[in-house]
Amino acid sequence: MTQEQRDPLDAAAAAYREARAALGQYRLPEVRRHLDEAKRLLGAAPDETDGHIELALRVQLTESWLICDGSGLAPALAQVFGVAERAESAGREDLQALAHIQGGVLLARAGRFADALDQLRPAVALAHALPVDDRVRLLLNKGTIASQHGLLDEAADDLAQAARLAEALPDYAFMALHNLGFVEYLRGDLPAALQAMVAADGMDAGVDRSVSRLDRARVLMEVGLVDEAADLLAETVGTMRAAGMTDELADALLDRARCELLRGRGQEATALADEVLAIAAGREDHARALAAAAVRLESLVLVGSPDRLAGEEAARLVADAEAAGLTRLADRSAALGVLAAAAADRPLADAAGIEARLARMRRSPYLSVRLLAVRVELALGPEPGRRALLVRRAMRDLTLAKQGMASLDLRTALTIHSWPIVVEDLRAALAAGTPWTVLAATERWRRALRPIPSVVPPTDPRSADLWSLFRRRREALRAPSGGDDPAVHADVVRLERALRERSWTMRARSNDAGARSFRRSDGADHLLLSYFWLDDRLHLVSAPPGRPTRLHRLGGRSDLVELVQLVSTAASALAGARRAPLAAGIESSLEDALAQLDESLLPKGLGEGPVVIVPSGALARLPWGMLPRLRSRAVALSPSLGQWAAGATAVHGTPAVAVASGPDLPLGRDEADVVRGSWDGAAALEGRPEAVKEALTRYEVVHIAAHGQHRADNPLFSSIRLHGGDLFAHELEHLPTRSSLVVLSACGVGRARVRPGDEALGLTSSLLALGVRAVVAPLTDVPDELARDTMAALHRRLAEGLPGPEALRGATTDLLARSFTWFGSPWRVVR
């Protein structure tokens, strides 16, 4: 039977259902075609029945989406309110409720959240007349909008009810779970937020994922995973363009612009904001036009060089946002105006009104907004006591945000939002001019920003299965045919992503007993060198034993970073070509770069004794022991002087030692044998991932001789090669680590990727963050024979009771052996 031969009302209902299905996938041209067909068929059906009235009104409500997308909010609302009046006249409470729902959703899309809730709350009173799917939709929309309006308890209640009602409705269950995750994010429970969102994304639901992925990208930005957010936003923008989702596309472009601002890319952010301005102008969308103008202003103030016009633009935005009822946008614009005035050294136009705005920003659920409020207050030039209070508030807020996060990935990424405050505090310290004031400022921030050791629950069975499968697929890549198999590569990428996302959802209990301030007496017999970057220039505070602390202004970033990279490349090249014809040329190039860095980085008159270095940024990748004036010195690298002092370890008696070696390392077993021979009762481990992980929970000292791989693109997947597969930095997050000293005789595993705030990620930094007191690892490649001999000499000296850095100094007489670096705190055996 053709559609023309069917009952017109039944055929119209079928066309309407097709339209709703197409709307769920945002296939808007199909929605229009099916709705036009439904309207045509309704015209041929009797119009006095309840069924006809209901279907006609439902068609009009669905059509309001298309009207809003094509002509704007006002005509769409006019259609919705007309439906509400007809439904009330017909005594149809269910259709009245649906009209309230649709009006609320359209208002929310335009950013008018208070008006949207005024539409949705009456719908709840009429919900008894609705079928289950419409009741779920009402609760979903109301909960989502309440969360956007800051009413988090109301939102959580609505979404929890929706999730319970939607048990047999997978599409709605997906939306309820995802949106509940967003509310958890607003409540500050970021692991719970990501857990819900990841779980929702894995559901078998036939809904468009672009809007939910936009929400997820916002969470990733808030936790500081800006590169991951940028990738997700690029994918989402492409999907929305293809689907013709104009309003959602504008929101995604704005979020992509904000993400570019976090990455320091002002021009890209401005271009994206300009695209949104063009979209908003064509649709007379005043709210989005204001939001885009605010992003342009942020680009100028936060990334660029604000001028007098920036302050005027901020004032205009404040007035326009207030007139439109966009209080949060007005507050943020006023905050930008303060920063613009401070940068231009101009008086603030509305000093009296800013305090109320800052008070609202301090109550924001977003850490980034609360820290922006602190930055603005600092720009207002408070007296010293107030300034110190503001800095402590920012540190406390950041520390609280990190608590409960098991993922080192999240705990290090979150720092990006506090970095502008760090810069302001360091500038103020430099202006004070005293070296100790500057050192105290760097130390307090390093203490606040460091990854807090945590007590993490054991790996759950699902994670264990994923790791096992991931290891097998990685091994398959090493098979003769595996490296060319696209399916194997795709599996590895998919599993890596799943494992990383799963780590984000894990909770932990803070274990911050080691945090304390540094005291000058802590390093009385050491030369202390603490470096930091400010405005692309390197600064150093040096504290020689028995002599005054000094402040040094050193070179520019680009030249020094280039030299560090040259050293890393040349040292690794020399390790692989020591007897090759080109070796002399490589060594000459290496020595030249090291001499330049020695002169550029180290103060004159180093004196004698051991050295403690707190590197910054790219300097964390430099093998400092290779510098000419440090080759005969005991050198330790630490994330901060406070952490170096707090972690000092003395092991009384013979420590429990375990030694393992990995495959395909010709001298690995020899190295393991000579290391074990240095310690009474040292255990020979089976060099498998599970055995090594267990050893880290049982033995005081663990030594691993194996091939290593540093992953600059994903540093927590840096690994050491063992029998049966690789051991990854990510896996260590779940270990109740007992080891106080870990020696990684694996090329290059001392390297780390440095995030804003000097947050390092890699194998070495992961072990230190877990509570291991000291790690020995090379920063470049080292020849196998040299590594074996160096490790034998190191352990022999450690067993004799020499302090760790001094033992390493005595063991590394060859230039390339000086790549082995002592990371962390003092460590020695006391007999």
Structural features, described:
This protein is α/β, with parallel strands linked by helices and 831 residues long. Among the domains are: 461-505; 520-633, no CATH class; 644-830, Rossmann fold (3-Layer(aba) Sandwich). The protein has an 11-stranded mixed sheet, sandwiched between helices. A 3-stranded antiparallel sheet has the order 12-13-14. Helix 5 packs parallel to helix 7 (132-148), helix 7 runs parallel beside helix 9 and helix 12 (226-243) runs antiparallel to helix 13. 52% of the residues are buried.
| The CATH topology of one domain | Rossmann fold
**Percent range for helical residues?**
55-70%
What is the average per-residue confidence, as pLDDT, rounded to a whole number?
Answer: 88
Strand content: 5-15%
Q: What's the overall geometry?
A: globular
Q: What is the helix tally?
A: 33
Strand segment tally = 20
Structural class, by secondary structure, is: alpha/beta
Biggest sheet character? 11 strands, mixed
Widest β-sheet, arrangement of strands: 5-4-3-6-7-19-18-15-11-9-10
Query: Which spans of ≥5 residues are poorly predicted at pLDDT below 50?
Result: none
Q: Give the N-to-C terminal Cα separation.
A: 95 Å
What top-tier CATH class of one domain fits best? Alpha Beta
C-alpha-based Rg, rounded: 31 Å
Supply the CATH architecture of one domain: 3-Layer(aba) Sandwich
